[in-house]
Amino acid sequence: MPIRPRPPAGRPLYRAVAVMVLGAAALVACGTDPGVITLSASPTPIPSTIPPITTSTAPASTDQPGDESPADEASADAALPTIVEPELRVSMSLSDVVNIDDNKPPRDHDELVAVAFSDIQRWWGEIYPTIYGEPYEPLAGGVYAGYPERATPIPGCGEPTTDYADLQLFVAFYCEFGDFMAYDDGDGRDSLLTPLADAYGPAVMGIVLAHEYGHAIQSRIGALDRFLATIVTEQQADCFAGAWTGQAYRGESPLIRLGDADVRAGLLAMLEVRDPVGTDQFVAGGHGSAFDRVGAFQEGFIEGPARCAELLDNPLPLMPNQFQRQDDYFRGGNASYDCSDVAAADCRPAPDFLAEDLNDFWTTALGPGFAAATPRAISDNFDTISCQSRVDLAAEVALCSSDRIVIFDEPAVRDLYDQFGDFSLGYFYGIAWSELAQEFLDSPLVGEQRALLNDCFTGAWVRDITPDAAGQTGRTATNVSVSPGDLDEAIRMAILVGDPGSNVDVVGSPFEKIGSFRAGVLGGLDACQSQLPG
């Protein structure tokens, strides 16, 4: 975890809160601290080929009585484009809303920034008095766009001006001194926002601004004077960003309408800027894993800003994100796929030990009547493999129910494994064994609700193998435990395999799948079984 050195003696103290729905750095200021401590967020590199974020990998069949064909359900929406432009209900010039100069290069997201910032201010003007019982004060200092070509200065936060190099480091920030915001609008190799907006859609910029405006609200209510842990204020700002996104998604804004692709873009973006794997969320500048941040965003999206207001005194639960074993640290939290890169004689391939642990978990939970399943890697023609009672659960994994065999498309899974981490396979295994558990329980659920329960059951398994402060898990028979980053990898898989929109009810939208997975992680099997009727 790289730490910036303290500034030279005599350098003024910043009082700023850096971006944290999207951003590469967090800035923390303590009243008596003579310097500035920053924690780099080490965003996950954006792959050269962005996976389509609206492509459904819905199951080809579920073999459940009365279930409709997923192909029929999704046919009307199968051709949705990867990025759907947000609907701007008004036209605004960026220069009327954001402080720029004549040297600013035009960006595809400029008008959205103008409309989104205007809507964020409109929204807070309406809801602030209701939530906090006092008049709302608009942002006095405005918002500044920074870029290498800019000739006019951006105000400093404790210094005369903000250098563009510093703005690139912070990506975006709110400054209590001067009550203003600034964001990096450059498109160079050291910039983050413009590439993310280009890759995932311009709504990313609106979510950034909504998050930063959350810090402006914290200034108004005195939260920044309470010396709270950074993770607490950032969690609330993520929640506020989700609440603003939710009202725009539901059509409550007269200025902007966001869609499913925009929400998905926000979820993916959080994966890119989570805290570094292994970071303690409570260190100065900690903002949380993607699992934590997405959870706060979803809380605001669903429950609204009044719920977010409660989080300073009653924060949401956080999952451990620190390495507890040296070997885990050196491997970045990823187990070896086939032991070809490990010299240890006791190394076991991930496909083997994950299957063993899932068999043990479900046998422990359901009793000896639950018959173990065996995994089988398919190296070629996965789609054409036939077996008794085949149930396709995602494009990469299927269940041969009668034979108690879980088959997976090894080239596809190995690619995800190498690109994103070992729990890419863990997620697919999780939903496969969860389907076996539903069969054992005679679950009457079909279609989307059945798929979402599989996500919840997978989360409950993850909860069981999450080590406590002493490094112990709920079971010791297989000596398997999740590592930092695994939860974020599961969230990525839920996003990639989710339905393209809320109007396509096949396996659940990414938002629904993540919510169900989180319910299992935080509440265990009891929380999941409440989804079963009766």
List keywords for this structure.
alpha+beta, single chain, 9% strand, 2 domains, 12 strands, four-stranded mixed beta sheet, disordered N terminus, 534 residues
Summarize the structure.
The protein contains 16 helices and 12 strands. The protein is α+β, with helices and mostly antiparallel strands. The strands form 4 sheets. It has a 4-stranded mixed sheet with strand order 1-6-7-5. The chain has a 4-stranded mixed sheet with strand order 9-12-11-10.
List the helices and strands and how they pair.
Blueprint: E1 16-18, E2 25-28, E3 37-40, H1 70-74, E4 87-88, H2 110-132, E5 143-146, H3 164-170, E6 172-175, E7 180-184, H4 193-200, H5 203-220, H6 230-249, E8 256-257, H7 260-272, H8 290-303, H9 305-309, H10 326-330, H11 350-366, E9 374-378, E10 390-394, E11 397-400, E12 405-409, H12 410-420, H13 423-440, H14 447-464, H15 486-497, H16 510-529
Parallel strand pairs: 5-7, 9-12
Antiparallel strand pairs: 1-6, 2-3, 4-8, 6-7, 10-11, 11-12
